[in-house]
Design goal:
Helices cover about 55% and strands about 15% of the residues. The protein is built from 23 helices and 16 strands. It has helices spanning about 5-20, 30-35, 40-80, 85-100, 130, 140-150, 170-175, 210-270, 275-285, 315-320, 360-380, 380-400, 440, 445-450, 475-485, 505-520, 540-555, 570-575, 580-600, 605-615, 620-625, 630-645, 650-665; strands at about 105-110, 115-125, 135, 155, 180-190, 190-200, 290-295, 300-305, 330, 335-340, 345-350, 460-465, 490-495, 495-505, 525-535, 565. The longest helix is centred in the middle third of the chain and has 63 residues, at about 210-270. It starts with 5 loop residues before the first helix and ends with a helix.
Length: about 675
């Protein structure tokens, strides 16, 4: 066999380099020369040429790979430049990373600083649903180490690597994905790490340093594209927000113009003599729906379009919803706003509409309330004159200037001057006589009574209302006059109290209603004492005195913002009541027990007396009654069912003991 010269052998290596032969082919010329018996010098030259050729071949492969990587990066940059959707950008990144690094899987996580965690956003090559749903606390796992150090990190075996903090659920997801070798590089925008880009293998194939550099280049492109996408999204959101703001400004300008026009129309109506109904018509024309005009007591004065007003039981709540905060507020399906002046609440506007009123619409409703207040004030003078007429008439009734005839209200609304016409001998302030009839002492009284609308054969209650502050008495008097006129009654201010004469036969209930409604109108506590019912004019002075005593008692008991009559004050009412109604007190306190004993022949009353006399000791009570203690317990349980579970509370127990003593005395 012919031995090749060193120069010929070098040409062989050049041919191998030219055709980009595999590294193993470079061993063949040396092996052939050794087989042909070449000298050691020749073999040494060939070995040196081989090593040089292999170095050149490796450099050529690295250059080719680098060119391919640069081409891939260039292509990726072009692809990313055309993408605006974040998910599309992330999908392109992980797909390209997996191909360039020849990895089994590539994935990317993004940090959520507000939630304190990093979320899996995109994967390529994943087979585990749990892995794709991973949410990792910041600082945990390999990604936590990369994010904290802002440096790449590669591990040959993730589950056995102690360099980062493991979490059981993360390790379980990695094991389910069967990942072994993992490389992670940070994605940074400026100095802030926004996420981590990973490449991973399912075998122990560690990643080379140049692969970490390549993945870092991909991460840099990804961070830039993500930042650009977020900036574009923020810019788009800002532009949309600016468009929305401009739209709202245009709408607000139109609403302000509409409100101004509505205000001008309403003001012009009042100037021309229009009333609250005319204002309500304008409001419903502009805002739609139905508008109700309520007075300070919650009574409906106007319902636009002839609509049916809210239920009468709801009206006080509607009025209370508008006060004392002012402004327009929502109450059920109504928008309510107070009709008020700086020192007084005149009523309420309530708009029923399915629409949700914006600020401009609410201003229209509030302007309507202001114009309605103006219209009410313009009509107040005649109303105040009428209130004075009512007040003077009630003053005459309270002073005993009207008597009675047998059978109730007299046909002539006056008496014949008999002394029984005034129950307490009140001196007539006009004639100076006691018990004088209306016809004798108060000329025209019959006409005055008929003009205010007092009805015959109708029971009336007398109320004495007290305001917490003297500065409220003027407003309270005006409110009472309006309330009484609407109820076909009378009202008058007398010193520190406001007196009302109202149709009805339940004085306590009427007192509580007036206390609540007047208190809401004044935004201050009001205490109301009540008496009655009275069925003739001559009973008014005595009823008034009892109502005053009730109000005094309520104030003494610190029951502010409340109302009651003598019968409702328990034994206190028994003391202050004009008729000393012991039977009524017994029925109110012990009635169910007395009735039960009468029907069943039981001894509940005797058991109660013995129980209280034994200082509420069950065993001692049983001994005194000569019965078993269970019998006492059963009887007291029956008392609880008849009188209520609170019958042993100190206040009720005192009244029950007084009633028991009174019952024994009457028996």
């Amino acid at each position: 066999m012919t031995v090749q010269t060193p120069l010929a052998s070098c040409n062989v290596f050049l041919d191998l380099l030219a055709r980009e032969a595999a590294p193993v082919e470079f061993e063949e010329p040396v092996a052939s020369a050794r087989a042909a018996g070449a000298t050691p010098e020749t073999l040494a030259q060939l070995e040196a040429a081989k090593l040089t050729a292999l170095r050149v071949s490796a450099g050529m492969r690295r250059q080719a790979r680098r060119e391919a990587e640069l081409t891939a990066l260039f292509d990726l940059a072009g692809d990313l430049a055309g993408l605006r959707d974040l998910d599309a950008i992330l999908e392109a990144i992980v797909r390209r990373a997996r191909r360039l690094l020849n990895a089994d899987i590539a994935y990317v996580t993004l940090n959520d600083d507000e939630c304190g965690e990093t979320r899996m956003r995109m994967t390529d090559g994943s087979i585990s649903a749990a892995f794709r749903r991973l949410r990792i606390p910041l600082g945990d796992g390999l990604g936590g180490l990369v994010a904290q150090t802002a440096m790449p990190y590669s591990t040959e075996h993730y589950l056995r690597d102690p360099q980062f903090r493991h979490q059981a659920f993360i390790d379980a997801a990695v094991a389910e994905e069967a990942l072994v070798a993992i490389l992670g590089v940070p994605m940074r925008v400026g100095s802030r790490v926004i996420g981590v880009l990973y490449a991973a293998n399912r075998t122990e194939r560690p990643f080379a340093p140049e692969q970490a550099v390549l993945l870092g280049s991909l991460a840099a492109h990804a961070a830039l594209a993500i930042g650009t996408a977020r900036l574009l999204a923020e810019t788009r959101a800002t532009v949309e927000e600016l468009d929305a703001v401009n739209g709202r400004l245009r709408a607000r300008g139109a609403a302000i113009e509409r409100a101004a026009q509505a205000h001008d129309r309403m003001t012009a109506l009042v100037v021309k003599g229009g009333d609250a109904g005319d204002v309500a018509a304008v409001v419903t024309e502009v805002l739609g729906g139905t508008l109700y005009v309520l007075d300070a007591a919650g009574r409906c004065l106007v319902a636009s379009g002839g609509a049916v007003p809210p239920a009468e039981d709801d009206l006080p709540a509607v009025t209370a919803a508008a006060h004392p905060r002012g402004g327009t507020t929502r109450h059920g399906d109504l928008w309510v706003t107070p009709i008020s002046t700086p020192g007084e609440v005149l009523g309420t506007l309530a708009l029923r509409t399915d629409a949700d009123l914006d600020d401009a619409d609410r201003r229209i409703l509030e302007r309507a309330a202001l114009v309605t207040a103006l219209a009410m004030l313009l009509r107040r003078s005649p109303a105040e004159a009428e209130a004075r007429v009512q007040g003077e008439l009630l003053d005459d009734l309270l002073d005993g200037k009207v008597g009675q005839r047998t059978g109730g209200w007299s046909d002539g609304w006056a008496t014949d001057g008999a002394t029984d016409g005034v129950t307490d001998g009140v001196t007539d302030g006009v004639t100076g006589r006691t018990g004088g009839g209306a016809a004798d002492g108060v000329p025209g009284l019959e006409a005055r009574i008929r003009r205010v609308g007092l009805e015959r054969d109708v029971p009336y209650v007398v109320l004495s209302a007290r305001c917490a502050s003297p500065r409220h008495r003027g407003r309270a008097a005006f409110w009472a006059a309006s309330y009484a006129a609407a109820a076909h009654g009378l009202a008058a201010a007398r010193g520190e109290e406001v007196v009302l004469l109202l149709p009805g036969d339940v004085p306590g209930e009427t007192a509580r209603r007036v206390a609540k409604e007047l208190g809401a109108a004044l935004a201050a506590p009001v205490t109301v004492g009540a008496a009655g019912p009275v069925r003739d004019l001559s009973g008014v002075p005595a009823a008034h005195r009892e109502a005053r005593r009730c109000a005094d008692t309520l104030l003494a008991l610190d029951r502010m913002d409340d109302g009651a009559d003598a019968r409702e004050l328990g034994f206190v009412g028994l003391l202050i009541g004009a008729h000393r109604d012991a039977k009524g007190f017994l029925e109110a306190t012990l009635g169910p027990v007395l009735d039960y004993d009468a029907r069943r022949g039981t001894s509940l009353v005797r058991t109660l007396e013995t129980y209280f006399g034994s200082r509420c000791a069950l065993s001692r009570t049983a001994e005194r009654l000569h019965v078993h203690i269970n019998t006492v317990h059963q009887r007291l349980h029956r008392v609880s069912r008849l009188l209520g579970e609170d019958w042993q509370e100190p206040e009720r127990a005192l009244e029950i003991q007084l009633a028991l003593r009174l019952h024994r005395l009457r028996s």
